[in-house]
Design goal:
The chain is of the alpha/beta class. It has two domains: about 270 residues, Aldehyde Dehydrogenase, Chain A, domain 1; about 190 residues, Aldehyde Dehydrogenase, Chain A, domain 2, CATH 3.40.309.10. The protein is built from 16 helices and 22 strands. The strands form six sheets. It has a seven-stranded mixed β-sheet, with helices on both faces. A six-stranded mixed β-sheet has the order 9-8-7-10-11-21, sandwiched between helices. A three-stranded antiparallel β-sheet has the order 5-6-22. Helix 7 links the parallel strand 8 and strand 9. The model has no long low-confidence stretch (mean pLDDT about 100). Bound molecules: nicotinamide-adenine-dinucleotide and (2E,4E)-2-amino-6-oxohexa-2,4-dienoic acid. The site of nicotinamide-adenine-dinucleotide has 32 residues, from helix 8 and helix 9.
Length: about 475
C-alpha cells in the first residue's frame, strides 16, 4: 500500500506489515512516509489551495464529493474486503455500518454545505445610515486528519468529507493497524478527478513518524484527531508551536443505566450490543453498567446468556457475531485488565480469557466476551478505558445514586438510559455528563447532530453543521451603508 501525494501514488523503502487479526498473517506491506514525503504532501496541499480547487465554488465541491460517494458505492465490495482484512470484524457488521457510513459521510456533508447558514446584522450608526455586517466562510487551509483503527473508514471519512466540503485540502493519516480502506479512498479520489494535492494520504505511526510529522508541521493549519485521550494530550502539546486549530474525539468509559421499569428484554439486548459490538472497540461502547437493585441478579444472568451466545468466528462466516480484537498487542492490554479485575476482587461472571479454536484463529487476536461484578467504583477496571468486549455491572438504588456513579468519571462521551419513565429520561439526560445520551437505544445516529465528548473525551463537536463550522473560518464583512 502506497502513500498518495500530489495526485500520485508514492512508494517508500521503509515498510511495515499489515496484519490480519483473524489468524495473524501479513496481508499487505505498507510504505511508511518519511518527513520529506510529509513535507511534499504539505507543499502540494498548500499549492492546491491556490489552484483550481481554491477557486472552485461550493457547487463544484458538492459535485465532486457526490462523485466520491458514487464511486465508493461502485467499489463497495473492495471497501468491504479491505476493511475486513484489516480488522477481522464480521462481514455483516462492516456491510451494515462501516462501508455504508463511509459513503454516507460524503453525501451528508455535500448536502449540508448548501444549508450552511451565514449571519447578517444591521448596525445602527450615529449618522443614521447604518452598516451591514455579514459573515462568509473560508477554508481553514491544510487540515491534518489522524484516525484510529476501530472504525477505520467511518471515522476517517467523517473528517475528510466535511474538511473537503468546506474547501480545505487534506493530509490524512490512517492508523498503522488499518491502512487499507484509506488507500482505497485515495484510489477513489484519483478516479473521480480530485485535483492533485487536495487529498493526500500518508502512512505511518505516531511518535517519530507520520503522525508526529503532521502535528508539528508549521504548514498545517488544523489537526482533527480521533483516538486515545493520552494521544490527544501529546498532539495538543505538539500542535501548540504554531497554534493549530484542534478537534478531538477521544476515549470513553461510558455508562449504561437500567431502571427496573425498563423493557427488560430490550434493555438486555441493547446493553449487550453496546458492550460487545465490534468486539467492544467502539468509543461509544458501554463499559460500566448500572442496574437498579430489584432486577440486578436477573439482568446479570440475562446479559451472561447473551455474552455466551456470541459466535466468535471468521468474518465471512454468516453466523459470526464477534471478531477478534485489532491486534495481539491490544489483546495483551485487554487481558491485562482481565487479570487486574481478578486482583481487584471482581467476580468473573463469564469470560476472562481467550478462546481456543484448534485452528489458525489461535494465532489471531480473539478474546472472550467478559462480564465482571463486585468491584468498587474506585477500581481501575471501573475507571480506565479497556476498549474490549468487557463490562462491569453494579447495582444501584435510585436516581441520585446512579447519577453520581455515572458522572464520577474522568471521561464523558456517551451514556445509555433504559427506562419507560420518559420524565426521568429527560431529567437524567440533562444531568449526565456526556456528549450524547441515548434513551432506550444505543448508537442510533443522525449525522446532522453534534457529536463529541466532555472532560477527557474530547474537545469540540463534529457532525452536521458543527463539523463544517470547525473546518471553516468565518470572516466578517462590514459595509457602511
Ligand atoms: P491511538 O490514539 O493510539 O491512535 C490513533 C491515531 O493516532 C493513529 O493513527 C496513530 O498512529 C496516531 N498517533 C498515535 N500517537 C501519535 C502522536 N504522538 N502524534 C500523532 N499521531 C499519533 O488510538 P487507537 O488505539 O487507534 O484508537 C482507540 C482509541 O480511540 C480509544 O481510546 C477510543 O476510545 C478512541 N476513539 C474515540 C472516538 C471518539 O469519537 N471519541 C472514536 C473512536 C476511537
Ligand atoms: O457515528 C459517528 O459519527 C461516530 N463518530 C462514531 C464514533 C465511534 C467511535 O468509535
Amino acid at each position: 500500500m502506497r502513500n498518495y501525494v500530489d495526485g500520485a501514488f508514492v512508494a517508500t523503502d521503509a515498510r511495515f506489515p499489515d496484519v490480519d487479526p483473524v489468524d495473524g498473517h501479513v496481508h499487505a506491506e505498507v510504505c511508511e512516509a518519511d518527513a520529506a514525503l510529509v513535507d511534499r504532501a504539505v507543499a502540494a496541499a498548500r499549492a492546491a489551495l491556490r489552484g483550481p480547487w481554491g477557486r472552485m465554488g461550493s457547487e463544484g465541491r458538492i459535485a465532486l464529493l457526490r462523485r466520491v460517494a458514487d464511486r465508493m458505492e461502485a467499489r463497495f465490495d473492495d471497501f468491504l474486503r479491505a476493511e475486513i482484512a484489516d480488522t477481522g470484524k464480521p462481514e455483516s457488521l462492516a456491510r451494515a455500518i462501516d462501508v455504508p457510513r463511509g459513503i454516507a459521510n460524503f453525501r451528508i456533508f455535500a448536502d449540508l454545505l448548501r444549508g450552511m447558514p451565514e449571519e447578517t446584522f444591521h448596525t445602527e450608526t450615529p449618522d443614521g445610515q447604518g452598516a451591514l455586517s455579514y459573515t462568509v466562510h473560508k477554508p481553514l487551509g491544510v487540515v491534518g486528519v489522524i484516525a484510529p483503527w476501530n472504525l477505520p473508514l467511518l471515522l476517517l471519512s467523517w473528517k475528510v468529507a466535511p474538511a473537503l466540503a468546506a474547501g480545505n485540502t487534506v493530509i490524512a493519516k490512517p492508523s498503522e493497524e488499518t491502512p487499507a480502506t484509506a488507500t482505497l479512498l485515495a484510489e477513489v479520489m484519483d478516479e473521480v478527478g480530485m485535483p492533485p494535492g487536495v487529498f493526500n494520504l500518508v502512512h505511518g505511526f505516531g511518535p517519530g513518524s507520520a503522525g508526529e510529522f503532521l502535528t508539528t508541521h508549521r504548514g498545517i493549519d488544523a489537526i482533527t484527531f480521533t483516538g486515545e485521550s493520552a494521544t490527544g494530550s501529546a498532539i495538543m502539546r505538539a500542535a501548540a508551536a504554531n497554534v493549530k486549530a484542534l478537534s478531538f474525539e477521544l476515549g470513553g468509559k461510558n455508562a449504561g443505566i437500567v431502571f427496573a421499569d425498563a423493557d427488560f428484554d430490550a434493555a438486555v439486548e441493547g446493553t449487550a450490543r453496546s458492550v460487545f459490538a465490534n468486539c467492544g472497540q467502539v468509543c461509544l461502547c458501554t463499559e460500566r453498567v448500572y442496574v437498579e437493585r430489584p432486577i440486578f441478579e436477573r439482568f446479570v444472568a440475562a446479559l451472561k446468556a447473551r455474552a455466551e451466545a456470541l459466535v466468535l468466528a471468521r468474518p465471512d462466516d454468516p453466523a459470526a457475531t464477534m471478531g477478534p480484537l485489532i491486534s495481539r498487542a491490544h489483546r495483551d492490554k485487554v487481558l491485562s485488565y482481565y487479570r487486574l479485575a481478578r486482583e481487584e476482587g471482581a467476580t468473573v461472571v463469564t469470560g476472562g480469557g481467550i478462546p481456543h479454536f484448534g485452528d489458525d484463529r489461535d494465532n489471531g487476536a480473539y478474546v472472550q466476551p467478559t462480564i465482571l461484578t463486585g468491584l468498587g467504583e474506585q477500581a481501575r477496571c471501573v475507571r480506565e478505558e479497556i476498549f474490549g468486549p468487557v463490562c462491569h455491572v453494579a447495582p444501584f438504588d435510585g436516581e441520585d445514586e446512579v447519577l453520581a456513579m455515572a458522572n464520577d468519571s474522568e471521561y464523558g462521551l456517551a451514556a445509555a438510559l433504559w427506562t419507560r419513565d420518559l420524565s426521568r429520561a429527560h431529567r437524567l439526560g440533562r444531568r449526565l455528563e456526556a456528549g450524547i445520551v441515548w434513551v432506550n437505544c444505543w448508537f442510533l445516529r443522525d449525522l446532522r447532530t453534534p457529536f463529541g465528548g466532555v472532560k477527557l473525551s474530547g474537545i469540540g463537536r463534529e457532525g452536521g453543521l458543527h463539523s463544517l463550522r470547525f473546518y471553516a473560518e468565518p470572516t466578517t464583512i462590514c459595509v457602511k451603508l
